[in-house]
């Protein structure tokens, strides 16, 4: 319970689902052979942390930010530029971290102090403007960022796929640098999610919830809401930048499409909504559902379409044609928002009876 | 008797509306001052202006001799001003316990103070770990008041605590506020319920159209039916 900061999933089904996801992610390199499965698992880990950090903002403070991918991109580009410029060594990794994280936090501080004093809609607009400007800047500074091509780089020796840490002869499977990188991504993402769980269950987290509900009431209790909101913005930016670093390390690449694109921002929003806002656990569920659907829905539809065609069914083969996977993905999200308005976690928790009545203090 | 709170020529504009039009009032230390008046007279705006939630466009507000009219709301709260807004203002997503912990800014909850509060509002003990949003209207109002008194405050600003509550709960609230008074609290209380006002008030201020139109002792107003009818459009007898 300590590790979950006194905030367990509060639903048996939810606990079971979370345990299954975590076990599957932990065992992916050995259970699901192949590059695709490992890539999908790594993406789920990175996005679970990224979405959890966005949940801190949207779910716990009610602030809608469009700059989250910018912080994610800052982390990605910082590590990519450092490893590209300094070569594949640990000093470059450290430099990327030392430059990327404070830069993200400083920018979040500036945006927060500048825009969190005013109405929430202005904060959203300002983050949108800053994120757009950053995207253009990253594209224009091609000497530094690689422009539209981005930056590919090599990892330090230990993390390369060619580095064999445990040979196949010993346990029947090989542990190489790629698997080590995966576990690095898995472990750091897990630590970040647990840290966010600690934050939202601390007195600071309660103040954020109070601000979300009624900012003036929170101020009347003596809380300087701009300070709290800015602090939350900086924490979220730090975690987003860290997720960006992990993503770049995994892909060995940072570019506009993988780090700064607005489609990533939309994905994050969808994952938060599907998983359940203001729960942190929702980030794990949302990221898993979304990324699995993104990666496997097309192939599943291909199989279903072929089966329908072989069975001689009318219309279905066309409707389930793999080319229409985006249409079905969209319908899936509409259905999930319709049937789970409080997200999967909210729905499961409500079924289990959230925050039951106590009898004494 | 020294004045804890003093407003001199306070004006407040909300958008293009001129709500408070030169308010002069004092709240003596250790006494309960009632702020009465018809709907729309400016009572709630007065409390919100004192609290810094609306900025006074003109005039001075001082607390224990210190100007507070240009201070931000959190700073005013940290000076020891507790505010109980109208409409059962609790944080509904938080539990009863979390609501009170949030208000106890100086650290952990004081058990003796908590037991004292539970003495008046036993429902709060019963629903200690329930979400505040699931409480009844009366219980929410109890929690709202408990939040303001969980720590000692120099001044309590309370806005219509009995509004929309059942008579039994109103009586419990009155008893609680009397007890808070006995402990020496200074209170500025907006109230429409004239019975509650008579029970609690030492002094009275009557507002109309953004100005104070009457000031005096509560007992004197309670005894003067024609004055009640002239100022408030009702009499205590009619209200009972």
From TrEMBL, chain B:
Signal sequence annotation: none
Pfam families: ABC_tran (PF00005)
Taxonomic superkingdom: Bacteria
InterPro entries noted in UniProt: AAA+_ATPase (IPR003593), ABC_transporter-like_ATP-bd (IPR003439), ABC_transporter-like_CS (IPR017871), BCAA_Transport_ATP-bd_LivF (IPR052156), P-loop_NTPase (IPR027417)
Keywords attached to this entry: Amino-acid transport, ATP-binding, Nucleotide-binding, Transport
Similarity section: Belongs to the ABC transporter superfamily.
Functional note: Involved in beta-(1-->2)glucan export. Transmembrane domains (TMD) form a pore in the inner membrane and the ATP-binding domain (NBD) is responsible for energy generation.
Protein name: ABC transporter ATP-binding protein
Species for this entry: Bradyrhizobium niftali
Phylogenetic classification of the source organism: Bacteria, Pseudomonadati, Pseudomonadota, Alphaproteobacteria, Hyphomicrobiales
């Amino acid at each position: 319970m300590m590790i979950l900061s006194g905030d367990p999933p509060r639903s048996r089904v939810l606990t079971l689902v979370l345990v299954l996801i975590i076990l599957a992610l932990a065992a992916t390199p050995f259970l699901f052979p192949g590059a695709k499965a490992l890539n999908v698992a790594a993406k789920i880990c990175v996005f679970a942390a990224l979405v959890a950090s966005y949940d801190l903002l949207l779910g716990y403070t009610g602030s809608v930010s469009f700059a989250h991918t910018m912080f994610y991109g800052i982390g990605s580009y910082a590590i990519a530029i450092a490893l590209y410029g300094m070569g594949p060594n640990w000093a470059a990794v450290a430099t990327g971290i030392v430059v990327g994280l404070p830069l993200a936090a400083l920018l979040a501080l500036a945006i927060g102090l500048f825009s969190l004093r005013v109405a929430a809609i202005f904060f959203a607009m300002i983050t949108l403007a800053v994120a757009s400007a950053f995207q253009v800047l990253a594209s224009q500074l091609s000497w530094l960022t690689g422009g539209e091509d981005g930056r590919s780089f090599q990892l330090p020796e230990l993390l390369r796929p060619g580095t064999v840490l445990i040979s196949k002869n010993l346990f029947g499977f090989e542990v190489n640098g790629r698997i080590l990188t995966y576990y690095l991504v898995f472990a750091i993402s897990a630590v970040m999610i647990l840290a966010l769980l600690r934050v939202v269950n601390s007195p600071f987290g309660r103040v954020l919830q109070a601000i979300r509900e009624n900012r003036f009431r929170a101020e009347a209790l003596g809380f300087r809401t701009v300070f709290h909101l800015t602090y939350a913005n900086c924490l979220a930016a730090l975690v987003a930048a860290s997720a960006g670093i992990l993503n770049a390390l995994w892909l060995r690449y940072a570019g506009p499409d993988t780090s700064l694109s607005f489609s990533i921002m939309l994905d994050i929003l969808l994952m938060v909504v599907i998983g359940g806002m203001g729960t942190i656990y929702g980030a794990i569920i949302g990221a898993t559902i979304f990324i699995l659907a993104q990666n496997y829905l097309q192939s599943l539809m291909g199989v279903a379409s072929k089966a329908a065609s072989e069975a001689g069914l009318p219309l279905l083969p066309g409707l389930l044609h793999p080319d229409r996977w985006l249409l079905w993905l969209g319908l899936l999200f509409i259905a999930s928002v319709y049937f789970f308005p409080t997200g999967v976690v909210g729905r499961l928790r409500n079924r289990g009876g959230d925050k039951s009545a106590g009898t004494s203090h | 008797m020294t004045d804890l709170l003093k407003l001199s020529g306070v004006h407040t504009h909300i958008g293009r509306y001129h709500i408070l039009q030169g308010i002069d009032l004092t709240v003596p230390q250790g006494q309960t001052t009632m702020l009465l008046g018809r709907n729309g007279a400016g009572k709630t705006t007065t409390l919100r202006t004192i609290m810094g939630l609306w900025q006074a466009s003109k005039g001075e507000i001082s607390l224990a001799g210190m100007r507070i009219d240009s201070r931000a709301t959190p700073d005013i709260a940290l000076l020891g001003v507790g505010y109980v807004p109208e409409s059962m203002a609790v944080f509904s997503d938080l539990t009863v316990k979390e609501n009170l912990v949030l208000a106890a800014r100086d650290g952990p909850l004081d058990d003796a103070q908590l037991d004292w509060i539970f003495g008046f509002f036993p429902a709060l003990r019963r629903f200690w770990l329930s979400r505040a949003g699931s409480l009844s209207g009366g219980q929410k109002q109890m929690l709202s008041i408990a939040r303001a008194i969980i720590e000692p405050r120099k001044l309590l600003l309370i806005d219509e605590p009995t509004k929309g509550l059942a008579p039994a709960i109103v009586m419990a609230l009155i008893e609680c506020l009397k007890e808070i008074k006995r402990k020496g609290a200074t209170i500025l209380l907006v109230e429409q319920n004239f019975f509650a006002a008579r029970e609690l008030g030492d002094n009275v201020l009557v507002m109309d159209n953004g100005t104070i139109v009457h000031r005096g002792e509560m007992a004197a107003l309670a005894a003067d039916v024609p004055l009640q009818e002239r100022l408030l459009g009702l009499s205590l007898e009619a209200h009972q």
